[in-house]
């Protein structure tokens, strides 16, 4: 059984009240679900990759963060993951069983590693970066749990207004204090144009360096959408800005292997693929392609069900060059991982 949210919260170092913090929710999309609607937030009945799947996977990954947070040997602590998914837990567990029987087991370690590596990238970012953009944010609660975001303006962007509303309601019930200076939740479809206008309308400053997080986002976009998004990021980024993204290998987009369950995009060489469309310094922060230790936990690569191929996962960091400044080779010193 998961620990009660208050117990996890009180046992989490660094959570403190900021009385000058604020959270704002902006519904910029005309297709937002009515908050009073009876439509369930978790709508996926089968693992077919579409917009509903992408939205509901936010609940799945948050649920898996809750499981990780309840472990004695946890490598992350997210005290808000359990209350954010409590009402959807039976459906999520049913969905995970279906995925395991039809596709592959979904080790929670992947989500734990992904969460921790992004946490580490935020911790090790240039301390002058106080503007954070979470693309495909969903139920992300870092603005409430990471001390490294103290004093930051966090802009969360996602296609689902109902998910943002759900998160706001849960945080209000928990009386959860922000660690970030303030958070703006912006509803916007990242597969369409309009990111610049949405951000600029909510306090984004393109003259300030920005940290861009794309956690769990890339696999749900077509390549041309990713290119457009990256070019928008480059255009909006001051020199010294940083980015973080995770990307799976191509086996997850193989239609013969996965059929309609295939993700939309993946790469086996992320440093020479879609991210190279922008002139940033790139680095693989970590890879789950081979067996190894990550934060003291052993990892054995996943295999595809039919072909038994290794399913690689990569975590990529990037930095926009500062003219006249030599960029250090390592952008995240101090990380302990094996490629």
UniProtKB/TrEMBL annotation:
Ordered alphabetically, the record's keywords are: Methyltransferase, Transferase
Top-rank taxon, per record? Eukaryota
Instruction: Write one Pfam family the protein is assigned to.
Output: LCM
Determine if Nucleus is one of this entry's keywords.
no
Q: Does the keyword Nucleotide-binding apply?
A: no
Q: Which GO terms describe its biological process?
A: methylation
**GO molecular function list:** methyltransferase activity
Q: What is the annotated signal peptide range for this record?
A: none
| InterPro entries recorded | Ppm1/Ppm2/Tcmp (IPR007213), SAM-dependent_MTases_sf (IPR029063), SAM_mthyl_Trfase_ML2640-like (IPR011610)
**Family affiliation:** Belongs to the UPF0677 family.
What protein name is recorded for this chain? Unnamed protein product
